[in-house]
Amino acid sequence: MAATALAQAAAPAALTSSLCSSQPKALSSTASLTGIKVTAPTFSKSKQARRNQIIASANAKAAAAVSAETKAAPKATNQYAIQAFTNWLLLQEQAGVIDNEMTIVLSSISLACKQIASLVTRAGISNLTGVQGAQNVQGEDQKKLDVVSNEVFAHCLRASGRTGIIASEEEDTPIAVEESYSGNYIVVFDPLDGSSNIDAAVSTGSIFGIYREPEGGCLIDLEEDATLDQIQATCVTNVCQPGKNLLAAGYCMYSSSTILVLTIGTGVFGFTLDPMYGEFVLTHADIKIPKSGKIYSFNEGNYDMWTPQLKKYIDSLKDASSGKPYSARYIGSLVGDFHRTLLYGGIYGYPPDSKNATGKLRLLYECAPMSFLAEQAGGKGSDGFRRVMDIMPEQVHQRVPLFVGSPDEVEKLEKYLAEK
């Protein structure tokens, strides 16, 4: 009995020794070890071939995975590569697209946008919501942030030393920069578009356009206040240029992220403010607006005050029998509505009505810069009958209707408005 137990205990050890032996041929397919039969693994030729095929396939896949990983390695190291706005500007300067002065002006504008973005974010905490208690030249109640944003923009542009005239939607007349700080560029801007939404934390933005100052300039001499009226008149004359003279234009949208969208006449580019670095970085290269779109942005609360032609156009967009009615999207902030239209396509419109015969948007500060951006992205900007960029301003705060967006959509609207 003891001998049998001892023999059975020795069997596994003997089997292990045989299987691990460097001479497997010494083990037959059926080996007898102290009375216990153990069957060693054997494969038929067909099964062995299949097994080898599976192993070869697995090895090939593993090799392919390693190869793919190796090829992808350089891309993985580039995922953290960013192009800052300042670097992008320097590249444009080196390419001869803009000059050194334009680089400085645009850098100053980006600084103003960063400051305003911070103010907007902390408006509720810093008691910057609500009205200031005054009205601007258009008779609109100024919000506290309107006033502060205007001061921020004006200060950054003056400090740049490269602007000769600055014209703001919030100021009665254009302002000439004192000679010691002046430059060759005219900057027009709306410091905070959509400020009526600020208390509700809805998207707002800053809009700007840059012109070259005509020969002769427009410099203010602080020692000669008696000539101030004449200088102001000269400033107004120099500022009143058609949109086709714009050298650069853009906007900065303050929303879930802060995005600076810019054109310098070579396409449209978008830069997102990275809070980690405190810098705008390139996130949208060469933006192109879709040729058509199924979104329209109009304030339909004014529908009853529109012309019959415009009503017919809007009704056609909502016609369910077409099978593809348009979607209505309206924020009430030109920057927010335009930005969506730029990326998704469609049309934005602020038409004239029986209450405002020329609409409410300003040609210099809003319509011309946005139309320039739209055209550079492949879109169109129209007052319903002519190209906005061709309109010669008669006064600095002139208002015009604006229809801007996908080319097919703007052309469709113009056809409706042309009907008798």
Please tell me about this protein's structure.
The protein has 420 residues and is α+β, with helices and mostly antiparallel strands. It folds into two domains: 85-284, Fructose-1,6-Bisphosphatase, subunit A, domain 1 (Fructose-1,6-Bisphosphatase, Chain A, domain 1), CATH 3.30.540.10; 295-417, D-Maltodextrin-Binding Protein, domain 2 (3-Layer(aba) Sandwich), CATH 3.40.190. Helix content is 38%, strand content 20%. It is built from ten helices and 17 strands. The chain has helices at residues 2-19, 45-78, 85-94, 100-121, 144-160, 228-239, 308-317, 334-344, 363-376, 407-417, and strands spanning 30-33, 36-39, 131-135, 141-143, 163-168, 175-176, 185-193, 204-212, 248-254, 258-263, 268-274, 279-284, 295-297, 327-328, 347-350, 380-382, 402-405. The strands form four sheets. An eight-stranded mixed β-sheet has the order 6-5-7-8-9-10-11-12, sandwiched between helices. A five-stranded mixed β-sheet has the order 14-13-15-17-16, sandwiched between helices. A two-stranded antiparallel sheet has the order 1-2. A hairpin with a 2-residue loop joins β1 (30-33) and β2. α3 (85-94) runs antiparallel to α4. The protein is globular, with a radius of gyration of 35 Å. Residues 1-41 and 69-77 have low confidence and may be disordered.
